[in-house]
């Protein structure tokens, strides 16, 4: 039987703990969905606000409102040309509203 001095055992145990500790620290736990929402919610709200303000700023420019009017009129005329009645075309244009970029993935 081999005798190991107690000081060697203590040093060996300390070395083992020191070597295994960083491995555990490198494996972060993923946040649960509620934590993720709490972390990302304010950022998403701020981004939405900035995008909405930018949209209003762009729509307030006369050249953009004129382009929007041109688009709306051409859309209405194209619907009538395709066979819709004036009332149907008007309802479609009203229902469409202001064109906007589609959300990613659509």
Counting helices, strands and paired strands, the structural category is mainly alpha
Q: Count the beta strands.
A: 0
Helix fraction?
Answer: over 70%
Question: Which value, in Å, is the CA radius of gyration?
Answer: 32 Å
Strand content: under 5%
Give unreliable regions as ranges. Answer: none
Biggest sheet character: none
Q: Report the total helices.
A: 4
The sequence of SSEs as H and E is HHHH
Oligomeric form of this entry?
single chain
Ends: how far apart? 73 Å
Overall shape: it is rod-shaped
Q: Roughly what is the average pLDDT, rounded to an integer?
A: 81
3D architecture notes:
Helix 3 packs antiparallel against helix 4. The chain has four helices and no strands. It is rod-shaped. The longest helix has 28 residues. The model has no long low-confidence stretch (mean pLDDT 81). The protein has a domain of 39 residues. Helices cover 75% and strands 0% of the residues. It has 106 residues and is mostly helical.
Descriptors:
single chain, 106 residues, 4 helices, 75% helix
Describe how the helices and strands are arranged.
Layout: H1 6-25, H2 33-60, H3 62-81, H4 86-96
Helix pairs in contact: 3-4
């Amino acid at each position: 039987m081999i005798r190991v001095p107690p000081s060697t055992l203590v040093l060996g145990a300390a070395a083992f703990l020191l070597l295994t500790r960083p491995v555990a620290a490198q494996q972060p736990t993923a946040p649960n969905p509620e934590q993720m929402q709490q972390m990302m919610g304010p950022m998403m709200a701020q981004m939405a606000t900035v995008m909405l303000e930018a949209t209003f700023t762009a729509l307030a420019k006369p050249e953009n409102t004129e382009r929007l009017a041109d688009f709306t009129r051409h859309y209405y005329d194209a619907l009538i040309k395709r066979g819709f009645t004036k009332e149907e075309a008007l309802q479609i244009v009203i229902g469409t509203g202001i064109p906007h970029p589609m959300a990613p993935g659509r």
